[in-house]
Amino acid sequence: xxxxxxxxxxxxxxxxxxxxxxxxxxxxxxxxxxxxxxxxxxxxxxxxxxxxxxxxxxxxxxxxxxxxxxxxxxxxxxxxxxxxxxxxxxxxxxxxxxxxxxxxxxxxxxxxxxxxxxxxxxxxxxxxxxxxxxxxxxxxxxxxxxxxxxxxxxxxxxxxxxxxxxxxxxxxxxxxxxxxxxxxxxxxxxxxxxxxxxxxxxxxxxxxxxxxxxxxxxxxxxxxxxxxxxxxxxxxxxxxxxxxxxxxxxxxxxxxxxxxxxxx
Length: 264
Ligand SMILES: C[S@@+](CC[C@H](N)C(=O)[O-])C[C@H]1O[C@@H](n2cnc3c(N)ncnc32)[C@H](O)[C@@H]1O
Known about the structure:
It is a single chain. It is built from nine helices and 14 strands. Helix 1 crosses helix 2. The protein is an alpha/beta fold. A seven-stranded mixed β-sheet has the order 10-5-4-11-12-14-13. Helices cover 31% and strands 23% of the residues. It has helices at residues 50-60, 78-91, 95-102, 112-120, 127-136, 172-175, 185-188, 212-225, 244-250; strands at 4-7, 26-29, 36-39, 68-72, 105-109, 122-125, 144-146, 150-153, 166-170, 178-182, 199-203, 231-233, 253-257, 260-263. The radius of gyration is 18 Å and the shape is globular. Bound molecules: S-adenosylmethionine. S-adenosylmethionine (SAM) binds next to strand 5 and helix 7.
């Protein structure tokens, strides 16, 4: 092992109610009733069909020259990597055109610690992540390389030492195509610029941790910014306590596939 990487703790002003996700996996108290819930991320999270998503996006934006890819709450980079891989795999021999047209993703997370993990280009993978990769790409070694480095994330619920993870290094085809920034998505949404209905906004499995009125206000803000044809992509966890589907329809979105909404 060459180097051990420690991620500094900096949780900012978030506290129990507006959750700061301190690690890939952790539990926290959700509300006054002490409902305990978990928080995690992972490659090819199974709440969306990534292969279908890749094909849908390529087809939907076939007449656009450049796409503005924005991701809120990317966590450790798993979701950005899943998105890039899905589009590359769907592109086949048009890979280079697709890379130019869609990337880089601009990814904004609130948590500095998890951002440090994302920016390191290192990622902790479990056996299930490898299985997900096998289902979603021809050869995962096109995207990830072995490394002697170990990624430690402070306050991660289960440390890599006690869990069956391997740290891998994302290759440049992934790291060159996403830039991570620190920002609060509830503020950042007000700066969204959509020139031509050519935006994909991914905000998955983060809204569901907030109060209903805050989610609705966010969706209203997204709706005000996105032009007709742009896509807004959510996650399964967002709908656990709130009817995201109805709210999106109320603010002018049409469901085009599971978790994917098009501004009408
Ligand atoms: C459960 S993870 C979801 C990660 C990934 N999107 C997925 O679906 O697997 C939630 C992420 O939301 C981020 N987050 C929470 N509040 C945020 C905010 N106000 N602005 C930006 N990111 C936020 C956390 O830091 C964390 O990385």
